[in-house]
C-alpha cells in the first residue's frame, strides 16, 4: 500500500514537513510506503471555472501543467492521501488552496469520484491561532471526495514558528503519531473490505440552487 502526502508550505523542510513525517513514519513502521511532495512553493493559479474537465471527464485540468495533473495521477494510484499546510491569516496558504481546488475538482468531482473510498488525513501547523480553521479546510476536500478519515485523540494540529519547533510540541506529536497509526490500520481495513464487500455505485448528483 502507498500513501501520497502533499506539503502545502513554501518551505521544503520546515515545520509542515516535520508534521507530515511524524505521520508517515508510523505508516512506514506498518509496512506502508509514503511519499511527500512539496507543492507550496509552486506558482499554482486558481481554478478558471471553465468546466472543461467536466466535459472531458478525464481527471485532468486543462490549464497549463503546473503540478496539478501530476498530483491527480499520484492520488489515483495511491491508497491514501495526506495533506499538510501551515496557517496563513487563519487559513490555508493561497497556492495550496488553489492546488486543492483544481486537484479535487478536476480529478475527483468532475470525474465520477476517482478518489472515493481512499483513506485521507490532514495535519496543520500554526504559530498560535487559526490552526483549527486550516485543518477544517483541508479535511473538507477529503470529506467531499467521500474518503475515509481516520480519527486521533485530538486535532492533528501542532504549533511552531522556526524549523524544528513542532518537534518540541510533545503533546501535538502524540496526536500526529496516533493519526499515523490509525491511518495505517484503516488502510489495511479498507483493503480487506474491498476484497470482500462490493462497492456501492456513487449516488447521482442533484443540483438544486437555493435561489431560482
Automatic annotation (TrEMBL):
InterPro entries: Flavoprotein-like_sf, FMN_Rdtase-like_dom, ISF_SsuE-like. This is Flavodoxin family protein. Residues 1-149 form the NADPH-dependent FMN reductase-like domain. The lineage of its organism: Bacteria, Bacillati, Bacillota, Clostridia, Eubacteriales. Keywords: Flavoprotein, FMN. It comes from Intestinimonas massiliensis (ex Afouda et al. 2020). Pfam families: FMN_red. SUPFAM superfamilies: Flavoproteins. PANTHER family: NAD(P)H-DEPENDENT FMN-CONTAINING OXIDOREDUCTASE YWQN-RELATED.
Amino acid at each position: 500500500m502507498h500513501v501520497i502526502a502533499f506539503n502545502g508550505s513554501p518551505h521544503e523542510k520546515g515545520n509542515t514537513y516535520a508534521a507530515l513525517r511524524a505521520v508517515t513514519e508510523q505508516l512506514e513502521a506498518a509496512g506502508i510506503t509514503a511519499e511527500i511532495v512539496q507543492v507550496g512553493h509552486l506558482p499554482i493559479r486558481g481554478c478558471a471555472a471553465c468546466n472543461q474537465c467536466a466535459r472531458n471527464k478525464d481527471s485532468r485540468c486543462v490549464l497549463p501543467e503546473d503540478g496539478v495533473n501530476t498530483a491527480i495521477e499520484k492520488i489515483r494510484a495511491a491508497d491514501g492521501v495526506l495533506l499538510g499546510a501551515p496557517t496563513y491569516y487563519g487559513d490555508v496558504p493561497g497556492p495550496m488552496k488553489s492546488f486543492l481546488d483544481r486537484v479535487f475538482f478536476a480529478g475527483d468531482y468532475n470525474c465520477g469520484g476517482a478518489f472515493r473510498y481512499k483513506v485521507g488525513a490532514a495535519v496543520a501547523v500554526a504559530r498560535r491561532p487559526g490552526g483549527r480553521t486550516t485543518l477544517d479546510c483541508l479535511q473538507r476536500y477529503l470529506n467531499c471526495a467521500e474518503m475515509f478519515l481516520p480519527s486521533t485523540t485530538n486535532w492533528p494540529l501542532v504549533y511552531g514558528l522556526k524549523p524544528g519547533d513542532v518537534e518540541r510540541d510533545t503533546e501535538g506529536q502524540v496526536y500526529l503519531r496516533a493519526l499515523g497509526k490509525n491511518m495505517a490500520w484503516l488502510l489495511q481495513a479498507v483493503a480487506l473490505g474491498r476484497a470482500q464487500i462490493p462497492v456501492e455505485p456513487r449516488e447521482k448528483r442533484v443540483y438544486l440552487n437555493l435561489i431560482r
